[in-house]
Amino acid sequence: MPRFPVGFELAEALTSAARQLHGTGTPDDTLTAAVQLTVRLLPGAEQAGISEIQRGRLRTLAWTDEAVRFDADFRHGGREPHPDWDRLWTTPVVRTDDSDTGGGGNALSGLGLRSALSLRLRADRRRLTVLTAYARKPHAFDEDATRVGRLFTAHVSLALDSATVREQLTEAMRTRDLIGQATGILMERLTIDAAGAFDSLVKASQRENVKLRDLARRIVDANSGAQGRGVGER
Q: How far is CA 221 from CA 31, 52, 184, in A?
């Protein structure tokens, strides 16, 4: 995709990007597509990453290059590569014009990354998710780049929410089917009705402090293994 910083061509480029984002299958796929599109769409961007700060820990969820993959635990002395990121809890954009200002010595400067444009994707009481574009030259991101970035992150956020909902619904359907299979197995083994089998499953889950889904999977897997051995012995 060529760079389209302004006007009607920008709208077309964002529409194309939105289609690609919404065409992804999982939240991880959406994040990967987002960083790749950032480099292709955002004026001045050479690398991009999406990072999450939660409970004092920073981890990068998607990246275009290992150089922009950061991981740190601030509670144990981990150094944050973006000391201004705290501002993103209350403001949507933080721009680093030159990481060498003040003598450098920070993580970005050490990697030869002079400019960064950080845009908030999500923020709640416990978690901050940030999309950041990087460049080797200083002052790489101007007001136009910031405007494009904010429009693009709006599309990323919508696509990410959509992919997350789809994944949750898929997992819910899988969980329902798994619990149904486990309930059927218990009905046959214990000669009880569906309500009794489900109640037995719930009590076992509570007693063993295991999620209902995981306990159901164990029962189904054990039953499948037993059936497989039986076939082999005949």
A: 33, 35, 13
Alpha helices in 5-118 (DSSP H): 7-22, 27-41, 107-110
Using one digit for the tens of pLDDT, what is the confidence trace for 69-100? 988 776 655 666 676 788 888 899 999 999 88
Instruction: Using the structure block, give the residue that is written with the tokens 């299958």.
Output: 25
The torsion of the CA quartet 171, 177, 180, 181, rounded to 10 degrees, works out to -120
User: ∠ CA(102), CA(53), CA(42), 5° rounding?
Assistant: 65
**13-39, pLDDT tens digit by residue?**
999 999 999 999 899 999 999 999 999
Reported as type and span, the H/E element at residue 95 is strand 93-96
For 74, the 3-state DSSP assignment is: helix
CA angle 180, 26, 21 (to 5 degrees): 145
Predicted structure pTM score: 0.76
Calpha distance 70→198 (Å, rounded):
45
Whole-angstrom Cα Rg for the chain: 24
Q: How confident is the model at residue 121 (pLDDT cuts 50, 70, 90)?
A: very high
Tokens (6 digits) for 233: 């012995």
Q: How many CA atoms lie within 13 A of 140 on its CB side?
A: 23
pLDDT tens digit sequence for 209-231: 888 889 999 999 998 876 655 43
**Residue 199: exposed, middle, or buried by beta-carbon count in 10 A (0-12, 13-18, 19+)?**
middle
Both tokens of 186, joined, read 């218990």
Report the alpha-carbon distance of residue 112 to residue 136 in Å, rounded: 6
